[in-house]
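Figure S7 source data.
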Amino acid sequence: MVSTIGPLDPCVHCGFCLPACPTYLATGDENDSPRGRIVLMQALERGHTAIIDSALTIHLENCLGCRGCEPACPSGVQYGRALETARRTLAGSHGLSVSLRALLAVFGSPKLWRPGFTLARWLRASGLPARLAARSRLGFAMGMLGASRQANFRPAQPTQVSGRDQSADRSGSRPTVALFRGCVMDTLFGHVHEATVRTLGANGFDVVEVRGQVCCGALHEHAGATAGARALAATNVAAFGRHADLIVVNSAGCGAMLKDYGELVGTTAAHGLAGRVRDISELLSDAGPRAGAPLPCDVAYDAACHLQHAQGIVSQPLDILRAVPELRLRVLPGSDQCCGSAGLYSVLRPSLARAVLEPKINDIASLVPRPKFLATGNPGCLMQIGAGLLAAGLDIDVVHPVELLDRSYALAGHYRPELGKAGREA
Ligand code: SF4
Ligand code: SF4
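Tokens for the predicted iron/sulfur cluster complex:
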């Protein structure tokens, strides 16, 4: 007889994961800890609890899915895998809430999310959202939108870095790379996409544009709506085909999802795509990013959970920032703790999301000297932390690490005029 070990079976209930769990730290409730949720999920798995038990549903929905508990566990419990299975079971048994279904329907179709985010971008351009940022529910939502704007880099004179230009040595030696555009990134964070394309070009990568892409499906998958996630994944697999050697992603959540496409879709093409996905920090770190011009400023780095815990990418974003001379880099204390963004979590569970964020904002506020920028590699984290900083009245811009490298390259004169806003079409 073949014995199968489930993802939760290795749990010995030691509790080492408890201090790593932001919801347990915020509520102090064992049911909102990984150990408590493991007991609930095991009861669900074994049929020892009613599937409609509201306590079970609440505590599993309170989970951020940040996977901060996984590296803290000495027994190798695969918490994230088990959570997705449990959420799939719950979604299948009593469906999703109306608000969640409506949100997922929007993200399921570019015809719906593109006009919605375009309107949001126009509102952001008015400057009102950043000015209205506050701790209230509406004020926080405004702050999230305001925080998605491009950081205000002070004008500075371009500086030519000494030494010969290395771009000629690099061009032709790197693989072709297709940019994964996503939904929120492509509409609210177009400036990060532009910085990504330019910095890749300056490091010798040939960037191509792929048409027909859709949302990565992570929001659907994390909600237990696996059929929706699979449909979006299959569309992306077909769109990318064999268009480029590698696929670059600058959103931690999307990158983690794309790397799971093999298991989700189950086809050879999906496994092939998953194996070609790289976060922008992985590509630039592997290339040994060329140095830019000095950018003397204080920067605090906060790790996105879906980079650090889900993809195991820890040092590469720091490599990007260290390629900027005179940038004074600090890793934020508690950088490995979730900020409370977690996809749609901050919209659906605003009170707990803000309770989880609070210690991070306090940690940033207590840094001496006060940083000019907070860098992190995920759109949700940029908006959540940015809204918290705006609400606290802290004059700190949130940026993707690649934006700082891009600024440094622009000042160094690394960009040729033909390095435009998009790569060539595949
Ligand atoms: S998940 Fe790991 S760390 Fe947490 S209680 Fe179980 S064995 Fe201990
Ligand atoms: S995924 Fe995050 S919020 Fe959920 S139990 Fe683990 S550490 Fe806690």
